[in-house]
């Protein structure tokens, strides 16, 4: 895996994404995390999600996206949902739509296809939020 220099594990953890994003950007850091996560065995997947991300580096929307991602990945892989991911601070006070769209028709589409783990946090980002290509 790609991040021995950063992590005590041989994979990037959810908690480390904010620090790693300082050397690249948030989107790339999340992508590296997902690549590592999808290659891990179940025990390592649980470890990768368990600790709360380091605070004070990302913006609120990004932290909410991390909580939603941890929640969805836990559900998708039958892992325990991390307690930190269920904290109220990881819910946006207003809806956030993909691409900062102002198109109400697009908003309705996003509301229909966004996974519930994102919807409950007021994040409407579509169905492919954790897909890797």
Description:
With about 130 residues, the chain is mostly helical. The protein has one domain. Helices cover about 45% and strands about 5% of the residues. The protein is built from six helices and two strands, in the order ααααβααβ. The chain has helices at about 15-20, 25-40, 40-50, 60-75, 105-115, 115-120, and strands at about 95, 125. A two-stranded parallel ribbon has the order 1-2. The radius of gyration is 14 Å and the shape is globular. The model is unreliable at about 1-5 (pLDDT under 50).
Write the layout of secondary structure elements.
Blueprint: H1 17-21, H2 26-39, H3 42-50, H4 60-76, E1 96-97, H5 104-113, H6 116-119, E2 123-124
Parallel strand pairs: 1-2
- The proportion of strand residues reads under 5%
The value of Rg in angstroms is 14 Å
Tally of DSSP β-strands: 2
The N- to C-terminal Cα distance equals 18 Å
Average pLDDT reading: 92
Question: Helicity level, as a percent range?
Answer: 40-55%
Number of helices: 6
**Total separate domains:** 1
Strand order of the largest sheet: 1-2
Task: Return the string of H and E elements.
Answer: HHHHEHHE
Shape: globular
The biggest sheet, with number of strands, parallel, antiparallel or mixed sense and barrel status, is: 2 strands, parallel
Flag low-confidence runs: 1-5
The secondary-structure class comes to mainly alpha
């Amino acid at each position: 895996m790609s991040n021995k220099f950063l992590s005590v594990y041989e994979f990037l953890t959810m908690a480390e994404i904010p620090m790693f994003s300082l050397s690249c950007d948030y989107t790339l850091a999340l992508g590296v995390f997902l690549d590592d996560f999808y290659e891990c065995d179940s025990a390592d997947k649980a470890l990768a999600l368990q600790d709360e991300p380091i605070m004070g580096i990302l913006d609120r929307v990004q932290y909410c996206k991390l909580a939603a991602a941890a929640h969805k990945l836990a559900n998708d892989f039958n892992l325990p949902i991390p307690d930190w991911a269920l904290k109220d601070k990881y819910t946006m006070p207003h809806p956030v739509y993909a691409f900062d769209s102002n198109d109400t028709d697009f908003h309705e589409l996003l509301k229909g296809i966004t996974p519930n783990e994102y919807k409950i946090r007021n994040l409407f980002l579509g169905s492919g939020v954790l897909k890797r290509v």
